[in-house]
């Protein structure tokens, strides 16, 4: 799996071999946009010598509104006819073990765990049938929103003044059968979400088609594919983790202070 890590003050990409407790160093651009194409250097590092960072640095994070049938049933509303798309603030996502920091104390906090898609190459007006060609891989996502939740046209959204942040990681699974992946979210060790991507209202290829019809997706951009039933309240200091089958577990903590 692809990781982004820091060692001796330098940030690079690597290929994590978790079973062997090591990472193989990658040099060059993993998105193949720049002249230097990615190569395996042959250098290997122990995992305990590196610090995992967010696996990508997106130019934008695109959120999808209500996209799980079990979530719609929980909320007592009809599934939407089309994907609800929202662009999140462009601040860099937190990585594994890094806190999500709110600069001020919000009225309330809400969490959503889910699966994120990482874009491989520029995408505009692509079809669902072409979508897999534009996907670099998948990672775990935690979205935490501050401010009052509102419900509009069957979609759950944040109020306009709310801040919204996310964490991504621990790695990007480059090849994954994403149609039926178990997703489990825990808050302070308690299971709060336990579902599967088979509950998605709009499958991932349809999401890429919809998003690319209204904006250009760039290499490294992220699409948050929605959240299943169980998303809810969070408090400063809570630890939240999301485990996605085939990827691993992302853990973060919510704090309030100076970002």
Q: What key attributes describe this structure?
A:
6% helix; SH3 type barrels; 259 residues; Fumarylacetoacetate hydrolase, domain 2
Q: Quick recap of the structure?
A:
By secondary structure, this protein is mostly beta strands. It is built from two helices and 19 strands.
Describe the structure.
The chain has 259 residues and is mainly beta. The chain has two domains: 2-52, SH3 type barrels (Roll), CATH 2.30.30; 61-256, Fumarylacetoacetate hydrolase, domain 2, CATH 3.90.850. 6% of the residues lie in helices and 45% in strands. It has two helices and 19 strands. Strands 6, 7, 9, 10, 13, 16 and 17 form a seven-stranded mixed β-sheet that branches. A hairpin with a 3-residue loop joins strand 18 and strand 19 (248-256). It is globular, with a radius of gyration of 18 Å. The two termini are 30 Å apart.
């Amino acid at each position: 799996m692809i990781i982004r890590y820091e060692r001796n003050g330098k940030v690079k990409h690597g290929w994590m071999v978790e079973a062997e407790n090591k990472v193989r160093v990658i040099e060059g651009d993993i998105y193949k946009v720049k002249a230097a194409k990615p190569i395996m250097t042959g250098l290997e590092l122990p995992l305990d010598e590196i610090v995992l960072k967010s696996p990508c640095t997106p130019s934008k994070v695109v959120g999808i509104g209500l996209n799980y049938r079990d979530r719609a049933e929980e909320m007592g509303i009809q599934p939407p006819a089309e994907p609800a798309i929202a662009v999140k603030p462009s601040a860099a996502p937190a990585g594994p073990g890094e806190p999500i920091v709110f600069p001020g104390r919000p009225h309330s906090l809400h969490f959503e765990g889910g699966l994120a898609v990482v874009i491989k190459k520029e995408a505009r007006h692509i079809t669902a049938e072409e979508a897999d060609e534009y996907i670099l891989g998948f990672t775990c996502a935690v979205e935490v929103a501050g401010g009052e939740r509102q419900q509009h046209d069957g979609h759950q959204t944040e109020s306009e003044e709310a801040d919204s942040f996310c964490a991504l990681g621990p790695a990007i699974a480059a090849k994954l059968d994403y149609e039926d992946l178990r997703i489990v979210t825990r808050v302070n060790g308690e299971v709060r979400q336990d579902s599967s991507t088979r509950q998605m209202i709009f499958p991932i290829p349809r999401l890429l088609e919809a998003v690319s019809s209204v904006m250009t997706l760039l290499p490294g951009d992220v699409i948050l594919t929605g959240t299943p039933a169980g998303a809810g309240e969070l408090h400063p200091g809570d630890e939240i983790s999301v485990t996605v089958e085939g990827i691993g577990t992302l853990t973060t903590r919510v704090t309030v202070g100076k970002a």
